Amino acid sequence: MTRARPARRVTIVDVAAHAGVSTAAVSKVLRNAYGTSPAMIERVRASMAELGYRPHAAARGMRGRTFTVGVLLDSIRNPFFAEVLDGVRDGFDGTDYHVFVGAAGFSPQDQRAMADAMVDRQMDGIVVVGPSIHPEDVADIARGTPTVVIGPHDPVDGYDAVVHDEFAGARAAVQHLHALGHRRIALAGTLGTPGNRWARRPEVLLEEGYRAAMAAAGLGEHVRVVHGRQYEEGGRESGTVLLTGSPRPTAILAWTDAAALGVFQAASELGIGVPADLSLVGYNNTSLATLTGVALTSVDQAGAQMGTAAATLLLERLEGRTRDTVVTTTPQVVVRRSTAATGTTGTTDGTDRAAAS
Amino acid sequence: MTRARPARRVTIVDVAAHAGVSTAAVSKVLRNAYGTSPAMIERVRASMAELGYRPHAAARGMRGRTFTVGVLLDSIRNPFFAEVLDGVRDGFDGTDYHVFVGAAGFSPQDQRAMADAMVDRQMDGIVVVGPSIHPEDVADIARGTPTVVIGPHDPVDGYDAVVHDEFAGARAAVQHLHALGHRRIALAGTLGTPGNRWARRPEVLLEEGYRAAMAAAGLGEHVRVVHGRQYEEGGRESGTVLLTGSPRPTAILAWTDAAALGVFQAASELGIGVPADLSLVGYNNTSLATLTGVALTSVDQAGAQMGTAAATLLLERLEGRTRDTVVTTTPQVVVRRSTAATGTTGTTDGTDRAAAS
DNA sequence: ATGAGAACGTAGAACGTTCTCCGCGTGTTG
DNA sequence: CAACACGCGGAGAACGTTCTACGTTCTCAT
Q1: Is residue A173 domain-shared with residue A124, that is, in the same domain?
Q2: Is the pLDDT score of B270 beyond 50?
Q3: Global pTM value
Q4: Structural domain count of chain A
Q5: Which of A77, A156, B24, B102 is most buried (most C-beta within 10 Å)?
Q6: Which of A98, A136, A233 to mutate to test the interface with B (most CBs of B within 10 A)?
């Protein structure tokens, strides 16, 4: 009513007194546990509403659940994560769980510390997105707290995973480019985060898929891979290397939309037109792909869907499932204006000298 | 050592037993409170290390602090928030506090619910970034939990604020453009989030600064303002409106980098070159500004610095300060390649017919 | 009527901290 | 030498839940 004093918190005890029942009864209503009559539920609910009761999460944490799940990632800056997060939030919508994000930074120590912080705060579940943090650490944490990993394809061990079929995604991209007549299709890849110990990271599968698809299309001799750093700068560096090399590729698949934009930048600087002289395919189909008139063709990986899947898996774990489960999502090439058929320009020099990575 | 059984948590009791002291003593060491000898501190510390003790945040929450602060924002997607968050994390670096992000979405109800969730989890402090959430709600929450608001210029009431001088920023942008010879300088602004009840939101000050600067430069008759929606789409719509109107502006100041990219897109679609036919200035100087060869001139608002300032203010509050404090950061125009002097192209038609907003 | 269950509620002990007293030694002072 | 202060450490009561036991009452077949 009046905003008055600092207003001591309304507790279960207050509600119990007001409703004329025991605290245990109130607790039961709260958790809709066994042993409550409709009449009592009604009365308690009314009291809770009237008093404006809100459960004290910390106190809950001492006994049971905190109704909190943590999403652990390296940086907010990655637009793909935004999609995943939306999916996770969606997946928990309608439940009593709240989602908090921990942006841990890139060092393994910091990431481990963040994970510990989540555990210390009695979070009920943790979603690790992107191959942050060491796999052993994940297994370690999963021993105490239900955990879902989004990204790496390594065999799970006491936790669940949501993965995307990068192998198929790379294949689809190569096929798309090959269908347009491209033969010298290069990959701007990455070696991944230093210190990362996952073996089967998304980038690894993507490269395997690329190589396999090239071989299957009879383009094995045109395989060309450059490993760059993260984000735009990495893409720009890789792009420069690829586009100043000889023979120059007519198409580049980048392992990330951001990297693709970096390649685009390198191309502009070299006076190479996209898609006239170079077809460019990104990966993840984030908002970057549609930005700024680039209209990047990109492989969609349905980040939101992956997030929702992670939420569902976590909820199942919280319900008691113990068998490790892996969910795989499938890619889809979204064609925009950064890819075009070859031969639309005279840049092709006919020679097709091979160049392996 | 051995990873062994599910490993019951190491508690203060275990540490006490191991060090041969009371739990109270351990607690004192933990909080470096009064009444401890160097010898005892040493012994307890050793035991904590050996046993791998980590404080149980939920239990702490029942009594004192949880060493947790929450950052409340609408969406992770905003790259400016990424900068702010980095600043906040920086500001808490070296302390025992951990930072968690709540992405609440755009509805006032959801934002309030998120704030409540943070309070329920006994977070020690809350940073509200961007004019999310109602001001009355903020005041309400601040009554129980130290709070810092980043963005709006409304008078504070029981909390602290970090604001940026958008008035000066807009003025600097206009001056920059005017110095390049531009006279028909338009503003692609916004009406802000619907349902938002802050009166002096950043956009409002920005528009005021724009109008004042135009007047001061004797360009009052060229003032032209369009209010669009959020992000790229909004910028694109506004850009289309402005660029198809007559007389067409030779320069546009957008209230956000994303909006500026939208304007850029609209310009491309209309065959209007940047900066040849149109000079474009963004706001916030986020990573978007450097992306994709756009090389956007933008007004830097030092997001990281704002975040750090917020952290500092919060720490001070937690130390006991009660007087409301406001920190203001100053803007700086970062010139890139989206602005150029007029007259470099023949598009100028000489007529300078006025057009008020 | 009687007893067996089911249905409904309650008491009270955790959970892991913090923090207010309280007491014990050991000087220090009048 | 009594009185007192001070430095150090401990006992134990919170904090707001959950949940296991355990009563009590009701239902219903025998």
Answers
A1: no
A2: yes
A3: 0.90
A4: 3
A5: B102
A6: A98
